[in-house]
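Re: zinc ion structure - here you go.
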Amino acid sequence: METLPPFRLAPYFRTRPWGFNDLAPWYNYRTDGEPIGEVWLTGEMCLVDTGPLRGMSLADATKQQRSALLGTGLTGRDFPLLVKILLPKEKLSVQVHPDDALAQHYGEPRGKTECWYALDAQPGAQLALGIRAGVTVDQVKAAVHDASLESLLHMVPVSKGDMIFVDAGTVHALGPGVVMLETQQTSDLTYRMYDYGSARELHLEKAFAAMKLTTRAGKVAPRTVDGHTILIDERYFRIEKWPIGAEAASALAAPAPVVQMLFVTQGRIRIAGDNFEAFEAKRNQLAVIPSSTPRWTLAGDDTSEIIRIVPATD
Ligand SMILES: [Zn+2]
């Protein structure tokens, strides 16, 4: 069985009209061109930054090393989860994603269920998560038509450290004042439902087909278990928060049946092992631990903290 060492991925900066020209203090990245709203951490175009696959895109690495990288418990061909940082300076349009069944009806491999972990939130920040209780589909359609949908959206206050589950079918929108770590099924199926009366194209027919008035979306209460916190444990992903001291818990640095991602929220981490060159990941960088990595260790500063993201096996 072929083995693959852990590696760091380089972020990919995506232009978005609602983003920032200067990503400080999150990234040392500045542009005079179109603003950047999304930093893709596991996009197919992200380049491997360390180790033998260095310079290869995540898409090619997944294609060439699929079982050594992902493990055998995942059925999809793509890297299983798309992790991004969202940095909205303006309101994003109101959107909805289809679930697996509807996506497959359209001939796509999967729908898009996602979640947001608030890396930062200003006082008073909120987001739209679903339609207010008691509102009917006809009322939603009428409100889209006369540009008053905002009054029907269920608004949720958000604080730093919150985890928010966005079930497929949930009408949702992010706004300014937050920085989110987004984890989602690898899919680009987004239907824009409402853009505050602007001229941008909407995808109303598909949006209404995907929309569900009631979903399981909402804030998820964290659960603390020995040495770490489970932020969410859902059908597609499990996400945990771990403090990393001079030596990480052996439960964390152990062989796993499936690929895992470590995103650094504080300090820096150092990943080492028998048959590969040790490397570091610092704040806002992401390391990938392939399922076939036999032995590795993880160490941090006194205050290092990571978010560990694990795809659920099919
Ligand atoms: Zn979304």
